[in-house]
Design goal:
homotetramer, about 375 residues, alpha/beta, two-stranded antiparallel ribbon, 10 strands, about 10% strand, globular
Chain lengths: ~375, ~375, ~375, ~375
């Protein structure tokens, strides 16, 4: 599949992906990362190491990237209301989702084409996820097979699904069977990206999927279009959700819900969870920040299924705020890709560990000792 | 007509308009434009190709250009509320205005003196409008005759009218007859510009209409002033609207309404449509953004006549928002002029096509399949 | 009087005031000013021509200059609500204040030490005020005598009063008699500056009044301090107002009222007018913008006496907004000083004329033909 | 104690602290400071003179330093509502706290490790505090003994307490006895810092406490961690407060209260005062600005104990606003450290005097003559 028209610029840049030297970072050693103390530090380090086209693919969003900005700003506007003089010697950050236990409420979101960032792609990410003990959601646009990814890690794996355009049910059923056989323990169905949006920065960088990459769960290489002439990314409809529900007993989460009315429909369709997401600001600009859309969705869901959220999380205080406003857990995307670029598996695990430790600090400094104590009263 | 006093600087710059080389762009070939993927890209490309005075004339606004900024900002502040899992394979963007069918709700607004931007002026714009199948509203300050413009295109043409100072009724009647004979299908009467505003950037650039330009529908070349000593641009009064209504059966739209009370008067005066406009921020600074003025006007009009809106539209999401807040269609001005500068007719059509495609993406990604489905619920 | 401690830097800078070349500008010819089309243009031009210490004295404010910023921003936030299709051929901007007729509602505010800006000081300003036909309020910190100022102009003169520390009643009575004899037609009593504020930029520039300057209406040269140790600028109390009321029949305005309760007291004290002012942001930082303080004061006064306003007016739309929110007229300070620096008397008159013409444009483009038609409905 | 992991960079920087030349500033002469007229001037001067690691330690905050920004911004958003024509010749800024009389409501907040800033550390600060007659709150992380500090000054001393991790009651009791014997007249118990926060700038600068420093009231040098794995700074619990109350009759203030519910608990625990503080933005980012948290705390406390506030105070108007919103007095931290860096004891006293004089100006220019007259009506 070609994600955008490739001009001369794109053709020139492509070899750079393969030729790109990644010296220190890919030794996977902790020393090279010792000066990186926040998630934003990893972005700066990654930017220096990534090929321009790869960085542009990862960092960019739709349109004028207003939603990307809001995803951060809206977290930064929320004020915390601490309790003091609480004994915070012991903190419990563990949770259970669909019968799976996690040490902390941070997952790795599905992100596409990780071989752009690291020669080992999703396999290397899985190694880092294993070290950090974080659930890793593999993307439909994975450049590695689930079996290889699963072999590299002990961490739980989930899988993200796009509904492709043609013969989708048969293909999707095969994919679901394969990933389940490889240990996948939940499915995230992306619902916010039937078509590609205005990915201007990608187009300017001449982005296209390098020919040498396999995308076994996203086989179409032609720039298919809808009847309306729009480039397909991968849409489902409510009917397809019902069908998917009927062919698998894996937990199904819908990823990309912002509207409480869609959350209600999702529950009626029998899904097991909801991910409040705006696709990292990559599909439609001026969608609201996810942290601002979360409260109304969580209120509508009212605990019937777990609600997760992604988008813009860079600080432990963001995790705290997301949980305070109704999320059971959060997913991070770009940050761990920057970890992958800066230090391979070690970079991935460091990113998760920094965020986890900041989250614990935020709990301690607001006087909350368990996830259950993180409620609306945390927000001032 | 002299739009402002010309100092030494202006005289120096004028020859540059004729001498200005416009190499690649004016071959009218698509390749030169292939890197331009958003409307803002066209502005950047145009700025490099345009004579300073021409660019300043097009880009500038009144006073401190606060209204120009608001025209953009107020769109950017509006958040979208999407619906997901809708089947958006097929989208219908067609509409009908005054019995005229359009494929999509985007028109080319009247803009003055297009020979400043391209040697062929309005004729070249009409060619591009024809390719894109967009209605083109020709300005009273056109540098080409309607007959020539009409010959260059199959697209519907409308005409914009200023009420000139002297002998206006006779002259206006002649103009209306001529443009109607050339195929004009609607009249836009500009109501927000009886006098010129504080066009500081134009004055600093020494702007005046080059002597070699004909302006057949705006013959006065002298800087006429009102009794109050203000430079006339071209005012009407409610009486003149009534008179115009009596002498033509063409649809009449009033362009420049921001106040709902004026919208009510317009309907009582028997006009066929209203264009919410602040003249692109060119006349009076700190007028509100049009997208913020639109809802109250649309509510007052309550569907009795179609309401259109211009000003600040640069993204498909802006079109979606304008329709959601009550507009039947939108007009773009500066963006297609930048297309004209960057690539002649091809540039004009590309600008329209990019905006149209972004609009379709915005429909698909908010789950709206027809214009009728674009209502207030789109805004979050 | 020393307005602030003078360090080594100040001593170095002082000769620059005298030595400063003011070539083109002080020929008083219009050509040198032809490129200056807005009040901000005059500030830029003046800054280049003024000695640093003089510019710092004029431009600077108290503290972090937040009030200076608000004085502008709060105008820029107000949106206009126009009426269209009104016949604006004829506009009437005339008014009457205390029996004095003016062509337009713009006065020249009292500003100190004009010889810093022009060798002729207040006399040159008076010439420009005469050309523009604007009332000029001479400051207590004038460097010229009222008789000399009056001889240079036909424009009405007012006088601003500080209450000095010692023997104030006798001295003030003498000053009032002298200025009245020279044609002064109203007194503005400054009430917001009993002491100097934190004039950091002045202090950093080593500002002090040059020894060669006479300040006949502000004779103290020693840095007198209050019992609380604060540098005196010149305070009155309500008792002093009562006394002044008893010794002159000139109209008395209190300048520096922001609190409606003080406006009420002022009326009870028998004053003839109120000037809403924050001393141009020069005395106390984070006082509110005058345009934001105006409505509550005007509402409390309820037409019993005229309310004027100064601070931050740079555009004709600002004048319109001030009148819409309850002011009978406005005063400008720094802008005409920049005119004085850039072009002597001609610069002063050009500044007034630009603002007056912009005000007329703003009336025409909002459809208001007289000052009486400028009411709250102008603000959107 | 190591406050953060020291990498190679830190080791390199450490010698710079000792070697750092502090020529003019540490002569303690007033001339070197004559150009510094505001507290921000002292920061600029200090930054030039301080070792990078020391400056980073002092200036930095937690996370993205949003709280540090809010601490300033929220003061700057508050508008003053002045009264005019009041006789402000005499002002009374005196107050009494816990039976101790002060000339003005400004104290020196506890700040750590002052030998980083000046060779004499807290002893030099105490000299400056004595000159300015300001109460000085010595930190648990003092690098000098209370006896030495007390000998250097006549100013009242308070002491700040951290609850350390092991054997805390015995050690704390000893500390309390020692500081009381040295003249300490009140205890401030820090309640908002059980663990260190995300001090990224400190970590990037490789900060650690130089080995040559003694910290007699904070003996642990090992980076102790909580059971949850977080670096301990020094937590108390409500039980510890009750114990402390039982072993000393010194006034106890809790420092770090932002939540009115904690203020209520504090009063029930028998404390004598509350300091609204967010630890200068150093512990948890996106805690609210203290001036914005103050009103609700003051309202809950309702005068039962005095409420103080620190954080972001840089101007006399800030002191006025804090008192208007319910504080009895304010504390400044970084500003006097910058004074210490720029000019030793003289710098400390100058910083206090500038702020005190600005506070008096603010009183005079709002027409308030005593602290009692500074109430909510000062805020517009």
């Amino acid at each position: 599949m070609v994600l955008s028209t490739v001009g001369a610029l794109g053709a020139t840049l492509l070899p750079a992906v393969a030729a790109q030297p990644r010296p220190a970072a890919h030794k996977g050693k902790a020393e090279a990362l010792s000066g990186l103390v926040s998630l934003d530090d990893f972005e700066r380090a990654a930017r220096e190491r990534m090929a321009t086209m790869a960085y542009e693919f990862v960092a960019s969003g739709a349109g004028d990237e207003i939603t990307i900005r809001w995803n951060r700003e809206d977290y930064n506007k929320l004020k915390l209301r601490p309790r003091v003089l609480v004994d915070v010697e012991v903190l419990d950050t563990s949770l259970e989702l669909f019968g799976q236990k996690s040490d902390f409420p941070i997952l790795l979101a599905p992100t596409a084409l990780q071989r752009l960032t690291h020669p080992e792609g999703e396999v290397e990410t899985a190694r880092g996820a294993g070290v950090a003990n974080a659930t890793f959601v593999v993307s439909s646009l994975s450049t590695r097979r689930m079996a290889d990814i699963a072999r590299a890690t002990t961490t739980p794996l989930w899988f993200q699904l796009y509904g492709l355009n043609k013969e989708r049910h048969g293909f999707v059923r095969d994919v679901v069977q394969e990933v389940k056989a490889s240990g996948c323990r939940a499915l995230c169905v992306t619902v916010d990206a039937p078509v590609l949006g205005a990915r201007n920065r990608q187009a300017r960088a001449g982005f296209r999927i390098p020919d040498v990459f396999e995308t076994p769960y996203y086989p179409e290489r032609v720039g298919a279009k809808t009847a309306a002439g729009l480039p397909i990314l991968g849409g489902f409809t409510w009917k397809d959700v019902a069908w998917l529900r009927s062919v698998t007993n894996l937990p199904i989460l819908l990823k990309g819900i912002l509207n409480p009315e869609d959350a209600e429909l999702a529950i009626r369709a029998g899904v097991d969870g909801i991910i409040v997401s705006n696709h990292g600001g990559r599909c439609l600009d001026t969608l609201p920040a996810t942290i601002s859309a979360l409260p109304a969705v969580a209120e509508k869901v009212a605990g019937r299924v777990p609600v997760l959220v992604d988008g813009g999380i860079r600080r432990g205080t963001d995790v705290l705020k997301a949980l305070a406003l109704g999320a059971k857990a959060v997913l991070i995307g770009r940050p761990y890709i920057y970890g992958l670029a800066a230090g391979g598996a070690t970079g991935v695990s460091r990113v998760v560990e920094i965020l986890r430790d900041e989250f614990k600090m935020a709990m301690a400094l607001t006087g909350r000792r368990t996830l259950a104590e993180i409620d609306r009263s945390v927000i001032g």
